[in-house]
Known about the structure:
Elements: E1 10-25, E2 30-46, E3 50-54, H1 61-68, E4 76-81, E5 84-85, H2 91-97, E6 101-104, H3 118-129, H4 134-147, H5 164-176, E7 182-186, H6 194-211, E8 214-218, H7 222-228, E9 231-236, E10 239-245, H8 246-251, H9 256-263, H10 270-275, E11 316-319, E12 322-324, H11 327-335
Parallel strand pairs: 3-8, 3-9, 6-7, 7-8
Antiparallel strand pairs: 1-2, 1-4, 4-5, 9-10, 10-12, 11-12
Helix pairs in contact: 3-4, 3-5, 4-5, 5-6
Amino acid sequence: xxxxxxxxxxxxxxxxxxxxxxxxxxxxxxxxxVVKAVDDLSFEIARGETLGLVGESxxxxxxxxxxxxxxxxxxxxxxxxxxxxxxxxxxxxLRKLRTRxxxxxxxxxxxxxxxxxxxxxxxxxxxxHAALGRREMRARVLELMDQVGLNRSFANRYPHEFSGxxxxxxxxxxxxxxNPDFIVCDEPIAALDVSIQAQVVNLLEDLQRSHGLTYxxxxxxxxxxxxxxxxxxxxxxxxxxxxxxxxxLYANPLHPYTEALLSAVPEADPEAEGARExxxxxxxxxxxxxxxxxxxxxxxxxxVFDRCRVEVPELRDAGEGRRVACHxxxxxxxxx
Length: 336
């Protein structure tokens, strides 16, 4: 884990981000609704920091990451990179921005072109965005392969000749090719063997230290997020439930959903594991096309009360750099 510089301001600033996908039905394909994949997200990421974004599958984590990189056009909200508004950029302006933002995808096999050699895959961003000669490009490709721990002799091989961990290293080298400031890591270890996961995470940490990178690390592996992230945001059904410094959030979760998630993380100590009390949530996750009125977690929350079913909680300051979207916390603050 790399601590961000103390004096640094946010590199990425997100305010009220929404990503809604239309639903069409009927003979004339009229719009009959929307899928609220991301609904009113607000957070910031400091320079050199790793923000972990966690939550159940289908909660909108990957959609949020893609919207930040402008792979999707946001429905509403503001996205700022280094103080510059980028949510409405189009054409050449957006193309120029690509050099500063990159993505490491979840499935290293699906994200690599099987008809291209490793050298060609890593060189593709350079060919699109950098004015380099053939010799300079070749030297840069070999340098990137060294940085991610790939043998230079692999440059003329194809992706199917590599293991999952090696393919992910190819994807990381491609993401580094243009010296970006910000990288979205979309569950980069989920498709890898457990024995390889730690190697890839350690590589990401080393690269962050040497290149001054800023990460949004999307994952459902809470143990790995605890190791890598400096701050953690917990997401449910398109909304952030809680966000704050990693140590405080893991030691004392404030939102009932965060409590339930962390109660499922196994402990290495047998005594602690034996004493662990699992919070089992009942019911299914509601559809993002028809979210509950009020708090989106109200249908499964073990601490729900009447206000939760009618009023959407705001993401409020809870002290020590933490923000929580929960009426219970708000009422406790008022009572205090």
